Amino acid sequence: MKGPLFYSKILLFGEYGIIKDSKGLSIPYSFYNGALKMDDNVSEDAIQSNQNLRLFAKHLQTLEERLVSFDYQSLITHLNEGMYFDSSIPQGYGVGSSGALVAAIYDKYAHEKITILENLTREKLLKLKMIFSKMESFFHGKSSGLDPLNSYLSLPILINSNNHIEATGIPSQQSSGKGAVFLLDSGIIGETAPMVNIFMEKMKQEGFRKMIKNQFIKHTDACVDDFLQGDIKSLFKNTKQLSKVVLSHFKPMIPKQFHELWKKGIETNDYYLKLCGSGGGGYILGFTQDIERAQNSLSTYNLEVVYNF
Fold first, then answer.
1. First-to-last CA distance in the chain?
2. Would 226 be classed as within a structural domain?
3. Each residue of 219-250: pLDDT tens digit?
4. Nearest one of 195, 193, 70 to 138, comparing CA atoms
5. Which CATH number does the domain housing residue 66 bear?
6. Are 154 and 196 members of one domain?
7. In whole angstroms, what separates CA 306 from the centre of its chain?
8. Is 110 among the domain residues?
9. Residue 140 lies in a domain
10. Model pTM?
11. In terms of DSSP H, where are the helices of 83-216?
12. 26 touches 146 (CB < 8 A)
């Protein structure tokens, strides 16, 4: 048995902001993917994955039936036969490893599932997002449901607000373009829950709430609009401002050894860094108008280009 592939995702803009109703833009990233599998390969990873899936299956039984119900009999039978999630998506890297797993389980075992072939109205998208949010909360404590949604649909998703999301198109890549979005590997595994807790604690301070509204969300929304409209000049102006705001106010989410590197990008304009997911490790997202310059400037790091301008 080998199930369909589900891709990782990259939230280009909107990390933390979407908790507070900013815009967001999430794109599938097919370089990493995962699928449910059953074979004679009993590697340590497969055994560990099978055990984790058993715990996840128990969590699914606690979900409200009217929201979603699953074919538990088949799920448990398959788990007893050794099913596991075979994935190349790095865990704790902000690219949606649990999202792909949630999408795969929903796709195979949900009763009356909403399929990607039907007319995906806003109501259906919101229902899917809510189902995925409840499913994925097993992994993070609190989940927006966006990662599994992106993985399930394999389409870019535009978040206009908490209750207004839509599948969207993004400008086609310029394969010969010098500008790029890239991933920088921090070499550290990040954990979502502690980072979200830090953010929620900070949100209790009036000054931080004002900054989120007047600076962070303002620049995030502008970046989303600029990206979708293909306004590269304005995009880089706003990304630079966003990078400055994150460096000033989200320091706990940036691994210490990257504080100077972050600052260097803003000062030289060689690249601008931002959080990829909740931060604390994993990947850091970079934007540059000249990928060669960024590679020279970050020569000691491995950069993965995900999109060319």
1. 39
2. yes
3. 999 999 999 999 999 999 999 999 999 999 99
4. 193
5. 3.30.230
6. no
7. 13
8. yes
9. yes
10. 0.90
11. 97-109, 122-140, 146-153, 192-202, 206-211
12. yes
